[in-house]
TrEMBL record:
Keyword Zinc set for record: yes
Protein name: Mycothiol S-conjugate amidase
Cofactor note: Binds 1 zinc ion per subunit.
UniProt keyword terms in alphabetical order: Hydrolase, Metal-binding, Zinc
Subunit structure: Monomer.
Organism phylogeny: Bacteria, Bacillati, Actinomycetota, Actinomycetes, Streptosporangiales
Catalytic activity: mycothiol S-conjugate + H2O = an N-acetyl-L-cysteine-S-conjugate + 1D-myo-inositol 2-amino-2-deoxy-alpha-D-glucopyranoside
SUPFAM superfamilies reported in the protein's UniProt record: LmbE-like
NCBIfam families: mycothiol_Mca (TIGR03446)
Enzyme Commission code(s) on record: 3.5.1.115
Cofactors that this protein relies on: Zn(2+)
UniProt organism field: Actinomadura parmotrematis
Length: 284
């Protein structure tokens, strides 16, 4: 189960991993916390009045196409996008948004889905949300709460029979090591790197979690990109996401990377499989 803040997050973080496990016969569920109603249109070709007026419906339709491409199941938690506040000082968050929901109210529907779907592994963001969007931070909080509470019969009564997931991972998509490696690979190939500004920002970034798990999934980068393109309001096909050729990516960095934040099974680090330790436990 991968828990994400907005539609499109599932395609930009961990999509190739999910496609790989779907191909292996694993049941994969994406949970999307909000509808992305306050997201900006980031593709100039989609900046049209009829799109802007119906952005919630459009993003729902984009998510439907992306989940079909990835081959995953998907559920909505049903909360309202908080938007990304900007300014100094920051403006208050809009009333009724996901980030302002009490933790138990925001977590209850996720606990219900965990108990229904019964995942062995949950993917989410770290405590900074991967980047400081309030919905990403809230997504982290509800994911940790659901991981810890779903197996406790005393908590969240009325949401189904208890189920304890066995491993919790944080996405480590934009690490310094990966960014520098892809940057050098582009230069070595005689190509212009899209990472110049990223590298400057990473110099001042706070310390990151250790990468404990690298999932080989280069064969599914094309599927990931098709899922990204399904989110046409958010992804410019001529933009940053597609600046590095797939053959360069597969040669330089053929994995998607994670930090193992919680584990109730024995596993040896580093891992190359999200189900390391789980397969052994389930087979007993």
């Amino acid at each position: 189960m991968a828990v994400h803040a907005h539609p499109d997050d599932e395609s930009s973080k961990g999509a190739a991993t999910m496609a790989r496990y779907v191909a292996d016969g694993v049941e994969v569920m994406v949970v999307t916390c909000t509808g992305g109603e306050r997201g900006s249109i980031l593709n100039p070709a989609m900046e049209r009045p009829e799109i802007e007026a119906n952005i919630g419906r459009v993003r729902n339709e984009e998510m439907a196409r992306a989940r079909e491409i990835l081959g995953v199941e998907q559920r909505w938690l049903g909360f309202v996008d908080s938007g990304f506040p900007e300014g100094d000082p920051l403006p208050p968050l809009p009333e009724g948004c996901f980030a302002l929901e009490p933790l138990d109210a925001a977590s209850e529907p996720l606990v219900r889905i965990v108990r229904e779907f019964r995942p062995h592994v949950i993917l989410t963001y770290d405590e900074r949300g991967g980047y400081p969007h309030p919905d990403h931070v809230k997504c982290h909080e509800v994911s940790v709460e659901a991981f810890e509470a779903a197996g406790d019969p005393e908590r969240y009564p009325g949401t189904g029979d208890p189920w304890q997931p066995l491993k919790l991972y944080y996405h480590m998509t934009f690490t310094k090591e990966r960014t520098l490696t892809l940057h050098r690979a582009m230069l070595d190939a005689g190509l212009e790197s899209p990472y110049e500004d990223w590298i400057k920002r990473l110099e001042d970034a706070p310390p990151q979690w250790e990468v404990t798990t690298r999932v080989p999934c280069g064969d599914f980068f094309e599927t990931r990109d098709r899922a990204l393109l399904a989110h046409a309001t958010q992804i410019d096909p001529n933009g940053f996401w597609f600046a590095v050729p797939l053959d360069v990516q597969r040669e330089a960095w053929p994995t998607e990377d994670y930090h193992l934040a919680r584990s109730l099974v024995d596993t040896e680090l580093p891992e190359d499989d999200l189900f390391a330790g789980v397969r052994e436990k389930v087979s007993l």
